[in-house]
Write a structure and sequence with these properties.
The protein has 188 residues and is α+β, with helices and mostly antiparallel strands. It folds into 2 domains: 88 residues, Ribosomal Protein S8, Chain: A, domain 1, CATH 3.30.1370; 88 residues, 2-Layer Sandwich (GMP Synthetase, Chain A, domain 3), CATH 3.30.300. The protein is built from 6 helices and 7 strands. β5 and β6 form a beta hairpin. The relative contact order is 0.17.
Amino acid sequence: MTPNPKTMKFVADRLLVDDGAIVEYLNIGEAKGSSMLAEKLFSFPFVQAVFVMNNFITITKTENIEWDMVSTELREFIQRYLMENKVVIEKMPEPVASDTSHSSAMQVSDPSEYDAEIKHLLDEFVKPAVESDGGAIDFKSFDQGVVTVSLRGACSGCPSSTVTLKNGIENLLKTKIPAVKEVVAESL
């Protein structure tokens, strides 16, 4: 389980994507032609999203079913697929145009003097914990005291992500970098 009651993390015994690569499918249309595994996972009526990173897959389910009713079925399906040594991601998906234009609009034109330090702190102290919960966090920008990050996988839509952002990440960054006033999640 993850802190997000709608998600479950399934860990494999091998890398599923290149180290550092992150792939997220929010519907079967995004998965088509990119990942047969994700396409097949979307054939389960309760699968809402598929997130793949390093050696794990995080599944987001719909509200109308409990994990104890479907987790064994999903685990066995994923295990069988991986044991057959099938490729998990056949083709890396193209970035969504609206997402990339939104992200570039959020970027400060010139990197601030704090960007490298913020990225280092996130990489060192935050990313390992977020990844262990089945999610991902990425630095997007720092502008006028506000750090903007994106949350994906188990972190996206997690009820505790706001608490984690404010009590954990924001406090860490404010303590280490006095210029940081707030941390916000990018809305996708």
